[in-house]
Amino acid sequence: MLKVLISDKLEKEGIDILKAEKEISVDLKPGISAKELIQIIKDYDALIVRSGTKVTKEVLEVGTQLKVVGRAGVGLDNVDVEAASKRGVIVMNTPGGNTISTAEHTFSMLLALSRSIPQASAILKQGKWDRNRFVGVELCGKTLGIIGLGRIGTEVAKRGIAFGMKVMAYDPFLSKEKAAQIGIELVLLDEVLENADFITLHTPLTPETKYLLNERTLKKVKKGVRIINCARGGIIDEKALAKAIQEGRVAGAALDVLEEEPPKNGNPLLSLEQVVITPHLGASTEEAQVNVAIEIAKQVRDALLGRGIINAANVPSLSVELLKEMKPYLELGEKLGALEAQLVAGHINQVIIRYAGEITSYELAPITVAVIKGILTPFLQETVNYVNASLIASERGIKVIETKSTELKEFANFISVEIQTDKMKKSVVGTLFTRVDPRIVRVDNFHVDASPYGYMLFIANLDTPGVVGHIGTVLGQNGVNIAGMTFGRNKVGGEAVSIINVDSLVPEPVIEEIKKSKNILEVKLVKL
């Protein structure tokens, strides 16, 4: 008998799907403590959670029978996916289950903000009739700026167009042609900030989007802009937003998510009348709750009974034997994609993946999917997986080309990933040493030997004495430890590339200091 533990509240429709299977038994323990979970998880084959349960490394190490962890929702921030992958546990989520509910909540917040509906209602309930205090603005003819045009952002755009708004969007993974098909102007981030009357955020929280709206960027916004965030807390610097509202640069904000939930009394946004706040209700509709419950129940059921794997965040759909054999190549492909995505600038138009050597004897489609997932993950995070990566790339107008050759050159196997954007073209080549150790062996035309792990500094510089020593000095003076270094050049005194593995995040001021150094052309920090 396969045992499933449901540790958070799940709608009956999902539970019934699992209970209908004779081979599956279900235990319901919503609100279980972390200590109790660790005590009992060893007896279960699958664990289904929402946002309340933390599936930590300790839980996964104790859960020796676990085969599947299912998250009824989009976010996977409460699941240690890396630890699960190391233990061979499949991690699933339901990336599409709350798309409509979150889009509708976003637009509800936008409408409430434009007409001060919550504030006017509160004043009227206090016995005050004050029409002049709450003069609003119309949406028709205004510019709606969307940052992040995935499924939810696209649904919000459709609603904005229906209200007669001009819609512009910033999304590095959407082609201009694809945006034009749905009536959206694709622009740079600064253009959204400078021209939008309403700005709505629909990106995951990543190192790149942390405090995307901050004191510096909020100085660029059009005066009187209204800002909506139903995505993730932490994308906005809340103190900077409060200051911008108090100074009159931002007319108001509507927030469904906060950096700290529930918020403490010290949050400056709570006391501002111009701010509408709801307690993370984006997915809180009856339909969305039922949808994600049904989806995750079916996915966990099918995975346990060998009927297929859907929406897995950490494994493609392969047999156990083939997955074990191909896993090093899948990991290499995903790392190459993630690396490339963080090095390029502009909107991605085309990805060319070249395979050479013994690797071509395998079915290459799963590796290609791994590369695409790697490219999309740094920006889309848990909304992309092995199942939907190719579809998302297609939806965003990214052309993927796959070629292969059995001809052997410098290495027995290698994977080359070239990304073409509207601004540049860049390529990286990777291989496996001793069939298991992934290495970056070429960046553009520079031969290197780098381990694709953790934090990496990619530095374009002139090949002159003292450059590398100066970089090391700057890092050392700021407490950043170097774990490994590699260099590549085409000719003495020409351009060169330096790749430095470091043990910790390099603060932005340190990166800026390196950029200002003599003979440094470009500096990029990559996280793998």
Q: Outline of this structure?
A:
The chain is α/β, with parallel strands linked by helices. The protein is 33% helix and 25% strand.
Provide an overview of this structure.
This protein is α/β, with parallel strands linked by helices and 528 residues long. It folds into four domains: 128 residues, 3-Layer(aba) Sandwich (Rossmann fold), CATH 3.40.50.720; 179 residues, NAD(P)-binding Rossmann-like Domain (Rossmann fold, 3-Layer(aba) Sandwich); 129 residues, 60s Ribosomal Protein L30, Chain: A (2-Layer Sandwich); 76 residues, Alpha-Beta Plaits (2-Layer Sandwich), CATH 3.30.70. 33% of the residues lie in helices and 25% in strands. The chain contains 17 helices and 22 strands.
